[in-house]
Amino acid sequence: MKKQRAIVCAALAVCLAAASSGPVHAQEPTAPPARVTLVQALPGVNVDMAVDGEPVAQGVPLGDVVTVPLDPGSHELTFSDADGEVDVVSTLRVGPSTRTDVVLHLPAEVDGDPVVNSYRTPSAPIGSGEARVVLAHTATAPPADVRVDGQVVFTNIANGEYAEADVPAGTHSVALLPTGSADAPILGPLEVQLEPRTVTSVYAYGNPSDRSMNVIVRVVRLSADGVAAPRTIETGRAGLAGDLVVGSRFRLGAEARTRADAAAVAARLLRLLPTVLRAVASARPAAVLSPLRSPDLS
Question: Which pTM does this prediction carry?
Fold first, then answer.
């Protein structure tokens, strides 16, 4: 009888302690961040970059990229230079786990002001022997056709627009031509090596009239289901302090897990308490209780 009373007292003590600690609220899972890559395709100038008023890189030269994690939602991107010749503000809205390239470049007209265009990395499923290529027209040039392996596959792509295709992995020849023309390309032909299950983004910049046409190439590896989610952010040579690690999953903190497990133990004791009380009241041997195991907090 004394042993049974001791069990009851212990159960009541644990239940009262759990009740006095207040309700346990699980932490809301945080949405995974987006990955935004700022691409500097503006010739002849070094650019300072800021997100939501906070500097992320300074003096970024032509061809460099800066990748930053951003919370889902709307963000203000600012591009400027030390001489005040560049002052571009753009708004970008991103979703969880998405990847977007934001390219600062010149418009089609000569001596035009810099513009910004964004290109979301396509992440649809892709076959094991295929590669995905995105070619964006960000050059000071009129609309162009895209020729791949000697055949025109896209036509009349204007400044700021892009073409996308899934092709067999391997080496391909890509060229940019004036729309409707069979004359010499304004860019290329370029030999592009496309690895299986990758997205290769090609941004053409410069001006064909002064033979300054060139490209900035970025490659993102896809998983079998098309999702692109590496754990590190490549900072390139833009002056950020090392790689920024981004976890793709979020877990409850240790304290929250401990409180949640304690509440689960208390709830179990409450469910068992009527059995113990009935056993004591009837003076029969107490019911056999399955042992309570310590919660695994690892």
Answer: 0.67
